[in-house]
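Course exercise 7: structure representation. Students receive a sequence record and must write out the corresponding structure in token form. The form below is the worked example handed out in class, using Transposase (76 residues). Read each field label carefully; the graders check that inputs and outputs are placed in the correct fields and that the protein name is recorded exactly as given.

STUDENT ID: A-19
EXERCISE PROTEIN: Transposase
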Amino acid sequence: MKTSYTSAFKAQFMLELLKETKSITQLASEHGVAPTVLREWKQAALTGMPDLFVRRNSVTELKTAHERELEPIPFK
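STUDENT ANSWER:
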């Protein structure tokens, strides 16, 4: 059975990993998570980090975009 971890749990790991006081192997051993899983989380965190600093659209723009997505696609 595949274990599912919360985003808060993953974020806590990344904070600890970015401190560089312990290796991925040490953290994996302490918390019972495979080192390959932690490497994947780290890569995802580093890849997604630039998006944290992107200015978000206004609520009105988001509503309009969402409404466009909900519109039915006409058949030809």
